[in-house]
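User: Last request for today: this protein with magnesium ion, please.
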Amino acid sequence: MNKSLDVLTIGDLAADLVLSGRDVVPEFGQKEKMLGDYSLEMGGSTSIFACQAAKLGLKTALIGKVGNDEFGALIKKTLKQAGVSLSYVKTDPSEKTGLTVILNAGNDRAIMTYAGTIDAVNKHDVPDALLKATRHFHIGSYFMMKRLQPAYPALLKKLKRYGASISLDTNWDPEEKWDSGVWKVLPLVDIFFPNANEARLIARERSLEQAVKKLQKVVPVLVIKKGESGAEAYAGGKKFAAQALKMKVVDTVGAGDSFDAGFLYGFLSGKAVADSLEIGCLCGSLNTTMPGGTRGQPRLNNLGGS
Ligand SMILES: Nc1ncnc2c1ncn2[C@@H]1O[C@H](COP(=O)(O)OP(=O)(O)O)[C@@H](O)[C@H]1O
Ligand SMILES: [Mg+2]
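Assistant: Here's the final one, the structure of the complex with magnesium ion:
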């Protein structure tokens, strides 16, 4: 089948307002605290992912909606600058663009979100011709995009028939139920990208080791992200590991999403799992050196020998 698109994803489109400082814990009683810094950037796990994929030269499209507002304009501008196709990003005047407020205390963060356009896409927004043209389909923010959850098993089966590979990064479950049909999706996934906590919670195991045992039986390539400790992968009965780079971390927003795109760049270029893991770690680590999810992302010519 003729594939004109390398990567397709569905956008949890939102802006990120990151508030940084030594003490970013709010106090009621009208207490006013001073911040060290703030940044306003495009957020959304899959949009950050799409930007990194496009920057690495993958032909990338995103299906999504933004509100008719300043945050929507910021998101479209950021996607466009990275080289992501905007052909399937619609402006919907009846919705507000999603907004995430992140309280950034260095290596940890608290997150509050207004959903808005994050969960605005439904299965009717996904054209069949586009699925046919796609080499690889990536699901991000699984738990937040509720409208699509019931549609995923059929959608993924169709993609498989059309010859696409599939990856999944659930991210955190804001409801902390860790189910929402994810076990119906996992057997259809080629690469699963949880971080270590998400892996344990989805597998319902106390130890990462047990979680890996369980998840490995279901997905051919299991990639566990471990923050500053790098990442590991399990594929073909083997274990691989890669280190994160030692970075002066500004914030870790989007590190995991950029990691996913870096790994996929390797995978779709036919590189070995170990090499793909290294590229993922490089993208994740560089991401942490700049505010927000996209500024630190490398382009293909920054990857060196990779
Ligand atoms: N503090 C950090 N220092 C260096 N690299 C990091 C840091 N945090 C994350 N990374 C890089 O980004 C990757 C993904 O980040 P991680 O926090 O594990 O994912 P997620 O954001 O999905 O939880 C890591 O594997 C690592 O390579
Ligand atoms: Mg993540």
